[in-house]
Design a protein that fits this description.
Blueprint lengths: L2 E2 L6 E2 L3 E2 L11 E4 L5 E7 L3 E6 L3 E7 L6 E7 L5 E7 L3 E7 L3 E8 L5 E8 L6 E3 L4 E5 L4 E5 L8 E4 L9 E4 L4 E5 L5 E5 L5 E5 L5 E6 L3 E6 L2 E6 L5 E2 L13 E6 L4 E6 L4 E7 L2
Antiparallel strand pairs: 1-7, 2-3, 4-27, 5-6, 6-7, 7-8, 9-10, 10-11, 11-12, 13-14, 14-15, 15-16, 17-18, 18-19, 19-20, 21-22, 22-23, 23-24, 25-26, 26-27
């Protein structure tokens, strides 16, 4: 039976048995194909794992115990738009893109397979996008803002001005903390309250943050060829889990934490997605 990586349950789809301290961790699963260069990686508890590739294609990662892991193409951001980042809810995948018009969001409905668009702001570029399942948030670096909508059909955006953050870029929604995690272009990350848009510095000196994910106990950021782990309680750097101490790949383009609190990463240079890696 075909399954989407990774639905919540008693079994990880790549055959890692949970529920026993004596369980043996299977080797990581690798998704890779010719001419494919992952540029972002996102996960939703209900709908699974999705990849935005450098060409603007969006795909779902599927594992079938009877066959090799496969990459199922969902849709393509059309020519003239430069795709930037992705986010996923239970029923949709969102992609921010820039064009001569400005910042545009593409929304793909998993139920109807229809693609719709909305122009966020004219003549201004956007960066990261995140969603809590209904509300979605977009970072506008040049304006120093995050704009958000309570639903896709909301007639207009609400705006948080972020004077403390220098060019807000990469975004992630922290489910455990019910907050946004935002990176700027000086190597700092902030927690932004979804109640009032107030920002609090979490960590600095991280380099150029390419992507962000959160686990039950950590904030995880990718910077260059490194994955950095920051404790949720004290916001201090932590040692990488076993198996991730010394990555030998290329540029890390995406990180995601699945429903079993395990890590996946996308390597842009090696053109692959690999995981899961236990974080405990």
């Amino acid at each position: 039976m075909k399954r989407v990586i990774p639905f919540v349950g008693l079994w990880v789809l790549i055959a890692v048995c949970l529920g026993s301290a004596k369980s043996v961790q299977s080797p990581p699963t690798r998704f890779q194909q010719a001419g494919w260069a992952p540029a972002d990686l996102v996960f939703n508890q209900a709908s699974g794992m999705f990849v935005l590739d450098a060409s603007g294609g969006v795909s779902r990662l599927v594992a079938d115990p009877q066959t090799t892991p496969r990459i199922e193409k969902l849709f393509q951001v059309e020519a003239g738009y430069s795709a930037q980042s992705a986010a996923a809810s239970s029923d949709s995948v969102f992609v921010t893109s820039n064009s001569k018009l400005g910042c545009t969001i593409h929304r793909y409905s998993l139920a109807t397979k229809a693609v719709s668009k909305r122009l966020v702001v004219a003549n201004t570029a956007c960066a990261g996008i995140a969603t809590n399942g209904s509300t979605f948030y977009v970072a506008l670096p040049a304006l120093g803002e995050i704009r958000y909508w309570d639903s896709w059909d909301a007639p207009s955006a609400k705006i948080w001005s972020l004077p403390r953050i220098n060019s807000p870029g990469t975004l992630a929604f922290d489910v455990a903390g019910q907050r946004l995690i935002v990176a700027d272009d000086s190597g700092k990350i902030y927690a932004v309250s979804v109640a009032d848009g107030k920002a609090r510095l979490l960590a600095s000196h991280l380099g150029m943050v390419q992507c962000i994910a959160t686990s039950k106990s950590q904030t995880i950021v990718a910077s260059g060829k490194k994955i950095l782990f920051i404790g949720r309680v004290d916001n201090l750097r932590e040692k990488p889990p076993a198996g991730l101490g010394s990555l030998t790949g290329g540029q890390i383009a995406g990180v995601a934490v699945d429903g079993d609190d395990e890590l996946w990463f996308a390597d842009y240079d090696k053109k692959l997605v690999e995981g899961p890696f236990p974080l405990g």
